[in-house]
Amino acid sequence: MKFKIGTVAKLTGFSPSGVRYLESRGVAVPSGGREGTYRMYTMDDVARLLECRNYRECGFDIEDTAELFHADDVADVSESLKARAEGMRDQIRHLENLEAFLESRAKDLDAIGAGTPPVVTTSPSLYWAPLWMPSEKGAAAPIPSGNDGFDIPFADSSFILEGGVEGLTNVRVGYAVMRRFTTRVPDNPDARFVPASKAVKSIVRIGKDFQPNADDLARVASFIRENSLLPKGDAHTQRLCSIHVPHEVRYDVLWQPVSE
Predict the structure, then answer these.
(1) What pTM was estimated for this model as a whole?
(2) Over the chain, what HEC string results?
(3) Mind listing the pLDDT tens digit for each residue in 13-58?
C-alpha cells in the first residue's frame, strides 16, 4: 500500500513540510516524484515517521528527532531521553511555582474586594535588593534580573518601611522575590535576606510618590494595638496589582513583623 504526502501527513501528525524535512534527513524514502509523478510513501515510511513523532511529542525539536532516529548506539538515545526528562522536571517545578504564585495573588486580590481586615500570619522569607532613587546619592542600580536570581514574574517591586508602620521614617524602594520561588541565592552584592517571621499582613495602597497610604498604615497600627501585639522593626511590602482605570491605584501586600 502506498500513500501520497497529504495522507502521510494526516497519518503521522507531521505537516507536509515536516514530512519533506525528515525525508531530506533519510527517515522516509519515497518512490517517484519525477517527471510529474507524485512521491509515494510506503507503510514502512509511515512507521519510521511515527517513530519520529514519538520523539516530537516528548519535546524534541525536529532536528534532534532526526538525530535520534539515526543514532547508532542505544546509550546515546538513553542519554538524550534522560536529559529531556531532567529538562521536563525543571519545567514542571517552574509551572508548579507559577501555579502557587498565581493562586496566592488571586487570593490576596479577593481580599481587597471583600474588605478583609489585617491578619496575623507568618511572613514569607524573601530576598530584597535596593533600587536607586533620584533623591539618593550614587550611581543608579539596574533592576535585578533572572540572571541575578530575581526571576519575573516572581520578583516584583517592593518597599522597606524603615521604622515600621507606627514609626515610619523612610521608604526604601527595591525589588524582592520570595525564597520559595527562586532556585538560588540572588547574585547581587546589595541583596539582603528577610527571614520569615510572625507578622501582621494587610493590603495597602501605594501612591505615585512611592508612599504607602496613611489611612491603610493607621488601620494596620490600630489592629496591632487592639490585639496587644508589638511591632518589631521594619515592615516590607511587595507589589500585588495595579489598576489603571478609571484612575491608577497600586496595591501592595504588607507584612509588619510583630511579637506578643
Answers:
(1) 0.78
(2) CEECHHHHHHHHCCCHHHHHHHHHCCCCCCEECCCCCCEEEEHHHHHHHHHHHHHHHCCCCHHHHHHHHCCCCHHHHHHHHHHHHHHHHHHHHHHHHHHHHHHHHHHHHHHHHHCCCCEEEEECCEEEEECCCCCCCCCCCCCCCHHHCCCCCCCEEEEEEECCCCCCCEEEEEEEEEHHHCCCCCCCCCCEEECCEEEEEEEEEECCCCCECHHHHHHHHHHHHHCCCEECCCEEEEEEEEECCCCCEEEEEEEEEEEC
(3) 999 999 999 999 999 998 876 545 688 999 999 999 999 999 999 9
